[in-house]
Design goal:
6 helices; Methyltransf_16; two-stranded antiparallel ribbon; Calmodulin-lysine N-methyltransferase; 9 strands; SAM-dependent_MTases_sf; alpha/beta; single chain; seven-stranded mixed beta sheet; Rossmann fold
Amino acid sequence: MEWVLGNFIYRGKRFLCWHFDACNEAVTEAENSAELCQGVRAEELPETATEEIGAVLWLEAAEACLHWLERSRSSYRGWNVLELGAGCGFVGLALATDGAQVTITDVAALLPLLERNASVSREHGGRVSAAVLDWGQQVPAHLRPDFDLVVGCDLLYDSASPADLARMVDFFVTGNTEFRLSVNLRDHGTGLEALMGLLEPKFICSVTQVPGVSLLFAQRR
């Protein structure tokens, strides 16, 4: 396994995303990738990042989320977007090509990967910043609940995830802020239902099913 530079399209615009162990090698940019990946891994990304599941790009839920977002609004230009548990920041990077100002967040071990992808996006005109956000810790003071959209993909990894994620949603989703989450159906019967049970006292929630993926929308009551 190695670091690869994926070449993707959102709304007809190209964006690049470094990730580990591509799930679909057909969409990666092969030219010069071996040399580039070796340099990134040795110089910028700690070995601990390869142990983080978020460094791997899981395309099914991510692409379903982007199709959903595209159908929901003609443009996200001018929107302030937060991606939770971003891993490599795939969804946030796509929205940045659409004109959104994006903050991609995850645990400290993945910050070098997020910063690398944010830097690549900025080189191509994107407005992307990276930050550490550990759901089990206090929210850093510089991350305030002033986002238009909070988004995430495949975030329900274990039994603790629903409660931790619900706490983040409760903090960041205020007023008219939208929360959108795509979840592979393998998690639908457990993690997603648990999350909805925690959110519904304060949030209006709805779920849409597409092949292989559940899409959760939530907004403050």
